[in-house]
């Protein structure tokens, strides 16, 4: 039951927000959807949910075009959070769960499990406006999964959460995947995507610029990072052939090299002159790849 996005274009007047996007989100996987502000992520989510019309192309779930009626199998955490501030948490979840066809008793049972898991069991009877922003977000997440959706779309699920809550949410997302949920999420935090996703797509101005399996994307990027800690001034290594970028760190340098073999000549050069404490080749990070493809860092 994959989600298939087939040659999808979305125009707002003369402006093309999503341009001929084709993607397959494999079932029971976690798919990372990345891109700078305004790249077209939320617009794609809204089309997948039937909230806005598609200008061209199709979005299919389980081989069939998604219609408003089929959205009961989809869970959505919108970027603009939408809870009623005056309603109590339980009433809120019962209301939203019933809209998705779940019985009140089941909603309440599931709510208690989730509140316990998110370490806020006492919040069932509090009004949403009494909760901190991060805790409101956890309630919004619970609302998006209360009907046990087959497909879960999360728009920036980790934004605004402290590190402990980020871990709680990550483990919840991983468990949902284990239980067979297909999950697509957007994030500006590359490390979350690296940790959770097998497959990903980086969007730029409405089009995918990188797409595929994370491991494969890293391998085909070619460049590597080289971490060097050494005694004394070793800045001259940043000028050696094959060094693409360099960044000074507290204990030495972090270099980007065009290919792994470049490290050999750097090591020879260094070992002639100084005592090398650390010399380590690392895979490029997703952040490195993003910066090169999109041309700007997020943070
Ligand atoms: N209803 C609309 N009318 C006109 N333009 C729109 C509308 N919705 C989105 N856009 C434009 O489409 C582009 C893509 O917006 P979208 O919200 O999909 O980006 P995004 O990738 O989700 O960005 P962010 O990371 O900032 O959330 C933006 O330039 C935005 O201004």
UniProtKB/TrEMBL annotation:
This is Sodium ABC transporter ATP-binding protein. Signal peptide: none annotated. It comes from Priestia koreensis. Residues 3-230 form the ABC transporter domain. PROSITE patterns: ABC_TRANSPORTER_1 (PS00211), ABC_TRANSPORTER_2 (PS50893). The keyword Nucleotide-binding applies. Keywords: ATP-binding, Nucleotide-binding, Transport. Belongs to the ABC transporter superfamily. One of its GO terms (molecular function) is ATP binding.
